[in-house]
TrEMBL record:
Keywords: Methyltransferase, S-adenosyl-L-methionine, Transferase. It holds the Pfam family Methyltransf_31. Residues 51-153 form the Methyltransferase domain. InterPro entries: Methyltranfer_dom, SAM-dependent_MTases_sf. GO terms for biological process: methylation. Gene3D superfamilies: Vaccinia Virus protein VP39. It comes from the Bacteria. One of its GO terms (molecular function) is methyltransferase activity. This is Methyltransferase domain-containing protein.
Length: 285
């Protein structure tokens, strides 16, 4: 008999399970309203007929907004989760967009295309690269010199307590404060040019979409119905909701930045200015 490596709670509340069910209610799998996505895209406007890469594209939430916002854009989307890519392809087909989007199952680190893009979106997966700075380093060669990158990144809005770290299965070092995060971006040789901090209401709407999606599965079923699984799914939903309300609500924040690469030749000079500013700020009374 195959060895079971995950508990039933983990199966039900795995990211794949939750996001597949939240997507119909909340297409972008991060705490962002459509109007925020549009505003961020407006601030990341690039060349005519832009080539766009979305790394960790999920179910295509950002891609479909980009294709709508920029009718001249074409996109490549990569995600490791085959079920997400399958659904995103079906949606592209249904919307008549298949010729403008190339959706691939692949790993964000190993399967990146050998091509340059005008805009790269990488929202909500710095841990796949081992952190924000390695992510910026890895994606730099894929961005054209005048290009823009949109990155989505968790931040600590206040110091996390033990319970928060426990429910998130995280450590303090996994995220920085807003200031620490911006310093990391600058340290990696990038110029942040826009930032959107998800509001409490955007966070609530996103988490409630996840809770609602799972509850629909429990009570209404996915065609076949949750059946005998219903009580288990409801219990898992309750734990999921509890972890949010009593664990990380108001502590884990989410920032979306638009960043531009600083040419390599200027990086040492800019880094020394940044260091001087930080030292000066730290030593100011
Ligand atoms: C928080 S979701 C965000 C999805 C999408 N960027 C959005 O904003 O709607 C993170 C996504 O990254 C994908 N992912 C995580 N690690 C990955 C990796 N190593 N390679 C490719 N995709 C990965 C997950 O499958 C998931 O779809």
């Amino acid at each position: 008999m195959p060895q079971e490596t995950t508990t039933w709670q983990e199966r039900i509340t795995s990211n794949e399970s939750v996001w597949n069910r939240a997507h119909d209610i909340h297409p972008v799998l991060n705490p962002l309203y459509d109007e925020s996505v549009r505003r961020i895209l407006g601030r990341a406007a690039v060349a005519d007929a832009p080539r766009v890469l979305d790394v960790g594209c999920g179910l295509g939430g950002w891609i479909f907004k980009i294709l709508e916002f920029r009718p001249d854009a074409t996109c490549v989307g990569i995600d490791m989760e085959a079920s997400f890519i399958e659904r995103a392809r079906a949606e592209a087909e249904q919307r008549g967009l298949s010729d403008r989007v190339d959706l691939r199952v692949g790993d964000a680190v190993r399967d990146l295309p050998d091509e340059r893009f005008d805009l790269i979106v990488c929202a909500g997966l710095p841990e796949a690269f081992g952190g924000l700075e390695p992510m910026l380093e890895k994606l730099r060669p894929l961005l054209s010199p005048q290009g823009r990158m949109i990155i989505g990144q968790g931040i600590w809005e206040r110091e996390p307590d033990e319970e928060c770290l426990r429910v998130l299965d995280a450590s303090r070092e996994d995220h920085g404060s807003l200031e620490e995060t911006i310093d990391s971006i600058a340290h990696a040789g990038w110029a942040p040019v826009y930032g959107h901090k998800s509001t409490e209401q955007e966070w609530d709407d996103f988490v409630w979409a996840c809770v609602d999606g799972l509850t629909r599965w429990a009570l209404d079923g996915d065609g076949a119905g949750a059946g005998a699984e219903t009580p288990r799914v409801l219990l898992a939903v309750s734990e999921y909701r509890h972890a949010w309300l009593n664990g990380y609500r108001g502590t884990l924040g989410y920032m979306t930045f638009v960043v531009r690469p600083i040419p390599r030749t200027w990086q040492p000079l800019v880094a020394s200015y940044e260091l001087a500013r930080r030292t000066w700020t730290a030593s100011s009374p």
